[in-house]
Amino acid sequence: MQVTTSSGKYSAKHYPDTIKEWKKEGNYFYFYTTETILEVRIISDKIIRFRYAADGNFQRDFSYAVSDRLEESPVHFGLHEFEENFEIYTEALRIYISRDDMRLTITDLEGCIINQDELGFHWQYYLQKGGKIVYCSKQIQEDEYFFGMGDKPTDLNLHGKRMENFGTDAYGFQKDTDPLYRNIPFYYGLHRGKAYGIFFDNTFRTIFDFGKERENVTSFWARGGEMNYYFIYGPELMKVAEGYTSITGTAELPPLWALGYQQCRWSYYPDKRVKEIAAEFRKREIPCDVIHLDIDYMEGFRCFTWSKEGFPEPAGLIKELADQGFKVVVIIDPGIKVDPDYNIYKQGIQNNYFCKRQDGALMEGDVWPGKCVFPDYTNPEVRKWWAGLFKDLVDVGVRGVWNDMNEPAVFEMGTFPEDVRHDYDGEAVSHRKAHNVYGHLMSKATAAGMRKFLMPNRPFVISRSCYAGAQRWTSFWTGDNVSSWDHLWLASVQCQRMSVSGISFVGSDIGGFIGEPDGELYVRWIQLAVFHPLMRTHSASNETGFNQEPWSFGTAYETVARKFIQLRYNLLPYIYTTFWQYSRYGTPMLRPLAFVAQHDKQTYDRSHEFMFGDSLLVSHVSEQGMKEKEIYLPEGEWYYYWNDELYTGGQVIKIATPLDEMPLFVKAGAVLPNYPKIQHVEERNQEEMMLHVYYSTQETGSFLYEDAGDHYGYKNGQYNDIRFKQVSEKDRFVLRKKYFGQYNAAYRKHNITVHGLPFKAKEILVDGEAVKLTAANFGENTVNLVVDRKFETLVIR
Predict the structure, then answer these.
(1) How many CA atoms, within 13 angstroms, populate the side-chain half-sphere of residue 661?
(2) Is 90 exceeded by the pLDDT of residue 382?
(3) Phi/psi of residue 220, each to 5°?
(4) Boundaries of each DUF5110 domain copy (predicted)?
């Protein structure tokens, strides 16, 4: 932690003194010392907010992160007074507040310490810049591990690390580069098999120390604002994740096509080249749904314009692509070119919409168009104006928007100076407070505009920078990465970490944005990206002339890329169902092994394996020329996807890694829904939906969620929530299905494949009716049959 320096920047540290009185107002408790006030808000039995007023005056209770749908649901809570402390109790926790110094100790009902203050809350006056630096330090419990914090490019376990949140354009970042683009001040603690989370809702530059400065202390602090944090108890890591998203909000379902494969380059130019790329995908039968247009589609890099030379007829181009099953996503940056003949610039000047310096001058800086000014997205009027600018793009057929450079990034300067002023929804603050939410609010306004003009269709937005809670309106990619094997590992770790930090709709630039991958690295990246919710190839190939499409590396690599992109499309029903679970419950789509086996210490430091949804365990091939890989399987039984070999968990196994395979396992008992072979999602409406069912004697449950895929009818009941339960025995397979919903899916049949039966099937019953058996019903260790999609019970014996 920062101490007093000879420069006089910081004053001495201050601490709360003895609590003199307290009061209760509804589900709020207030504790008063001579100067300090502690507010304790009981949100639920497991979610508690702690908020401190160092000098007796709370700041405005306002947050860009907290969802307006946050519900308070405490069932039974109260307070006991003791000689040395106060005890606030809920049905899951005990919170002890020391009378002498306000230090906190939080235990479970059995008295096990979950989280305990070290110095607790304290502060310094920030003499140079004003306000206070607010701190909180806590004891690290024995054998405690830490996770979360967004896209930090380092090991999953954060113990021994120090992290900073200050959105930064980190071009070509490397392992342990910090800070990066996104600002997620939320972490997990895990010890003795019990998990909690802390979300420090403060938009100033924040720092988190997980035992780096002092090995037994974790601390977090901000150079301004309030000490305001939420404590979230599990005790399961997955429950902490769900609790965090109950605070910051869950994602909307995206259009299904946004979960397909996306192709991007800086830049596809002119329109003739875009058409050539689209034609190659269809000619080569490589599935693809989206083509992105980078900055060169604009007229002189002016946002909301089209190049007269390169894209003279954008509506015609987009319709031609749409007829082939492609959607178009265009980039929009925050920098608005200083040009008195440019309508967007004129509107912003006339209405005072651009950021200004402290003395009233416009905030000007160079980005792609040259000298630019920048909208103040913290002003609700500006957000409304910005949203309205997307009408013309939607009118010509654009279906998605990609927000870049919104940390905010400025050439030469890095970012905005601290004296830039912001409205901050009526508060009037400096850039010190608004920096970490600038890109967050840009993408929010973008999503609002796209939603308005695309209605009833769903918008798709992708952003580079954000603050906590942005999952409510946008997806993300991990930024300007590098074509290297190290960055392939970073892509996996960053996406896992983002997922457990509330933001599952994330991916990396396949193959690397900077540099040139060889064919092996590219296809290994494709294989990993199949199991990331956002799957997009992107490259800075304008600098080298190098092509980075799936066919750019020769026939052998193209064949492997096609196989795995097709696998992505086969798995889309499963992926969409997993996204629905994330949208409904806040459940991370990507789950580090510790999050599915937190009582197994062998999972805590493992990053190469992760779960994608409930049923798929993935481990990417991470080294050039790798012929086999060691994989740790958590407890349970696991089928190897490529040959149905059954493995028992709780051990390390070795798996061969030929170029056309990657380690992929299916949890025993799972039902995996699959589409047949398609080239884009509009082809999915076929006669059959495939179900791959993996035998287990354990009772297991699986889901299939389906709706129209690209409008909001699901909010009015136009969806199907299908539940499967397998209750098999050693000589009998039983699959039961319950069907809830009103969506009339196009397919009428399920083509079912049962994997791993340990006995020879002699009889098949569908809803009590015998199925005539033929050779077509039997494959190698499988049983196959076609049934009506409304079936309820399948028995094989």
Answers:
(1) 14
(2) yes
(3) -145, 145
(4) 689-756
Q: What is each CA distance from 662 to 516, 609, 648, in whole angstroms?
A: 22, 12, 19
**Residue 359 annotated to the active site:** no
Contact 587, 596 (CB under 8 A): no
**To 10 degrees, what angle do helices 380-388 and 438-454 make?**
40
Distance set, CA 336 to CA 331, 344, 368 (Å):
13, 7, 10
Distance CA 510, CA 564 (A): 13
Give 718-769 pLDDT, tens digit per residue: 999 999 999 999 999 999 999 899 999 999 999 999 999 999 999 999 999 9
Angle at 255 between CA 254 and CA 256, to 5 degrees: 105
pLDDT tens-digit series, residues 186-239: 999 999 999 999 999 999 999 999 999 999 999 999 999 999 999 999 999 999
pTM score: 0.97
**Active-site entry in 289, 404, 614, 710:** 404
Check the CA dihedral 191-193-194-198 and report its sign.
Answer: positive
Q: What's the pLDDT tens digit per position in 492-521?
A: 999 999 999 999 999 999 999 999 999 999
Beta bridge partners, 697, equal none
**β-pairing, 749-755 with 688-694?**
parallel
Q: How far is CA 224 from CA 51, 94, 180, 182, 433, in A?
A: 14, 30, 20, 19, 8
Contact 747, 789 (CB under 8 A): yes
Closest CA to 63 of 424, 356, 507, 402: 424
One DSSP character per residue, 376-419 reads -TTSHHHHHHHHHTTHHHHHTT--EEEE-STTT-BTTTBS--TT
Helix (H) or strand (E) holding 632, with range, is strand 628-633
Catalytic residue among 169, 242, 407, 707: 407
For the chain, helix, strand, coil in percent to 5 are: 20, 30, 45
pLDDT digits 0-9 by tens, 236-282: 999 999 999 999 999 999 999 999 999 999 999 999 999 999 999 99
* Residue 483, SS3 per DSSP: coil
Contact predicate 638/668, CB 8 Å: yes
Distance CA 40, CA 30 (A): 6
Catalytic residue among 226, 296, 480, 637: 480
Q: Is 341 a catalytic residue?
A: no
Do the Cβ atoms of 597 and 604 come closer than 8 Å? no
State the amino acid at position 476 in one-letter form.
F
Question: 3-class SS at 243?
Answer: helix
Is 605 an active-site residue? no
The H or E element spanning position 125 is strand 113-125
